[in-house]
Amino acid sequence: MIDTSAYPLLSKILKPTDLHGLTRKQLRQVADEVRQAILDNVSKTGGHFASNLGTVELTVALYATYSIPPDIVCWDTGHQAYPHKMLTGRLSQFDTLRKYKGISGFLRRSESEYDHWGAGHASTAYSAALGFAAARDRLGGEERVVAIAGDAALTGGMALEALNNAAQLNTDITFVLNDNQMSIAENVGSLTHYFAKLRSRPWVQKVELKLKDVVEHLPKPVVRAAAGFRHGVTHYFAPEETGALFEELGLAYIGPIDGHNLDVLLDVFSNVREMQGAVMVHAITVKGKGYEVAEKDARTWHGVVPFDPSKCEMPSSGGAVSYTKVLGDTLLTLAKEDPTIVAVTAAMPDGTGLTQLSKELPDQYFDVGIAEQHAVTFCAGLAARGLKPACCIYSTFLQRGWDQVVHDVAIQNLPVRFFMDRAGLVGADGATHHGAFDIGYLRMLPNLVLLAPRDTTELAEMIRFAMAYDKGPIAVRYPRGAADDVLPESRTPIEFGKAEVLKEGGDVALLAYGSMVATAWRAAQDVESDGITCSVVNLRFAKPFDVEAIRRVVSRSKAVVCLEENVLATGLGEAILAFLHREGLADRPVRLMGLPDRFIEHGSQKELWAEVGLDEESVASQIRSLVRPRAGRRLL
Ligand SMILES: Cc1ncc(C[n+]2csc(CCOP(=O)(O)OP(=O)(O)O)c2C)c(N)n1
């Protein structure tokens, strides 16, 4: 529990309606205390930083003017909703932010009754809020519905799909566009230029009377007749701008407004709450607001590790070379040698390791925005016309482009190379970000080859292998962070569909995939002290897996353990078990180790591996239980 006495007014706000009745001066103080609390606490725990400093006034103003409950607020992604958490009774828990069993870094419907919408992936809030509004209209209710999304979230197709649907539903809803001109990196695409154009218009400063006039003097049926009313309001505030995109979509557009000017925000929101139809409030904010270095370099300060706030610098992460860096470096080297290689990211140049490549080879680099579906099909087009696309993407975000992988890549058998970072448990980002499903969702697809390296050196080899492979789609999955360097340095070259047998032993065959190879190796060493001998197989390929190596090693073993950092349902273990049955090799005990059939929350990777039984100790005890089912009795 943090000491909340440093925030005398904020600590008294336990729910949004506690803000009602406070003077504007007091609301200003609450906002200042929220900003201070973000700095004090996120600098200790790490977490999303710049985005949250940018939403302080927006949140205070919204919660001071809307009535929550019953009103509903849907935050997009949720990485900018720490002020929301602080105003909904969770200030004292900020020392547990993103920690094991602590509060999540995103919104979770299970965490708080005020988290109306859970997220982690971007661009969902507008759709969800429309669902809330349409359900209210059908079920009967008076609550207002608000959705807040960043400018980069609008590069995601789903947000635009929702806006396209909004006016047609003829429902009352407030969309807020939190425009800070940034994604994690600079925002991309034509919409961002369009927003810049809107930003250049005179800012709305005095909304209250004008808007009230409009609302009060329009008879209800006219107000309900959405188009006329909306255009009326829009033109009231922005007479010089016609044909604005939002207007054309049938929304009333109000903006741009200063997203840090509490007075303006309070005026606007208290009036917009009374408006009918779909309204878009365009608020201009500054990512990192109030912490100078973060304002200047919001990209670096988007997400932070613990830092000393007085020093104004982010400690360097140091340590072993990450998988992400190896991807970036290797692809850069290959792309320099071969100009037909192109790298594609969906708004994650830093996270996927492509930043250096983007600087050195800008013509061989594409950032398509938060648009994973488009990224995949764009790569399919690039491949169809003869380039060699590397689609660099997190495992969790490729979920969004799955139909595109099936329909546009696999069915057409196009040689798109997928490099899936953050496969397995990612740690503090939690359930929405774990790469828990990709083995299943890719293994089932005809034509697609799927592999995973045992360490970073092998990743580099697999990248070379994948970029040279041109017979169809191929995907390499690798985990967050750096590799465990426990494995022997001797290596065999990557061969299509071939595993690498690292160690042979007669008792238990450990068939391990990707990140689990090192864990299997450590567990095998551990049980050796009990006289138990294991084979350790680095499977390398999940599809096609090496039936010969598996047949050979298993037939010499008394028991089998399959290990993967993926849900067991649809995982590689299930496929191997089916194979062993077909081969008549399932007559010995076979254990499948992987992620259980539930969503895993946040925590350090170590804590989470221990929780799900994928740490070295759990694997070793599984091996012992196979060899000695009852204490002291060797059955096998
Ligand atoms: C589908 C998806 N792709 C990528 C991400 C990674 N991501 C997290 S926040 C973010 C940038 C969001 O920018 P914006 O919506 O403008 O909000 P801001 O941080 O600027 O407030 C990205 C790309 C994600 N969360 N979801």
Task: Describe the protein in words.
This protein is α/β, with parallel strands linked by helices and 636 residues long. It folds into 3 domains: 70-77 and 97-300, Rossmann fold; 323-477, Thiamin diphosphate (ThDP)-binding fold, Pyr/PP domains (Rossmann fold), CATH 3.40.50.970; 500-627, 3-Layer(aba) Sandwich (Rossmann fold), CATH 3.40.50.920. Helices cover 39% and strands 15% of the residues. The protein contains 25 helices and 19 strands. The strands form 4 sheets. A 7-stranded mixed sheet has the order 9-8-10-11-13-12-17, sandwiched between helices. The chain has a 5-stranded parallel sheet with strand order 2-3-4-6-5, sandwiched between helices. Helix 3 crosses helix 12. The longest helix is centred in the N-terminal third of the chain and has 22 residues, at 24-45. The chain starts with 23 loop residues before the first helix and ends in a 9-residue tail after the last helix.
Short summary:
The protein is an alpha/beta fold and 636 residues long. It is built from 25 helices and 19 strands. It has three domains: 70-77 and 97-300, Thiamin diphosphate (ThDP)-binding fold, Pyr/PP domains (Rossmann fold), CATH 3.40.50.970; 323-477, Thiamin diphosphate (ThDP)-binding fold, Pyr/PP domains (Rossmann fold, 3-Layer(aba) Sandwich), CATH 3.40.50.970; 500-627, Rossmann fold.
Secondary structure elements and pairings:
Layout: H1 24-45, E1 47-48, H2 50-53, H3 56-65, E2 72-75, H4 82-86, H5 125-139, E3 145-150, H6 157-169, E4 173-179, H7 190-199, H8 208-217, H9 220-224, H10 226-237, H11 245-248, E5 252-258, H12 262-272, E6 278-284, H13 292-296, E7 303-304, H14 323-337, E8 341-345, H15 355-360, E9 365-367, H16 372-384, E10 388-394, H17 395-398, H18 402-410, E11 417-421, H19 438-443, E12 449-451, H20 456-468, E13 474-477, E14 500-503, E15 508-512, H21 516-528, E16 534-538, E17 541-543, H22 547-555, E18 559-567, H23 572-583, E19 590-595, H24 605-612, H25 616-627
The protein binds thiamine diphosphate.
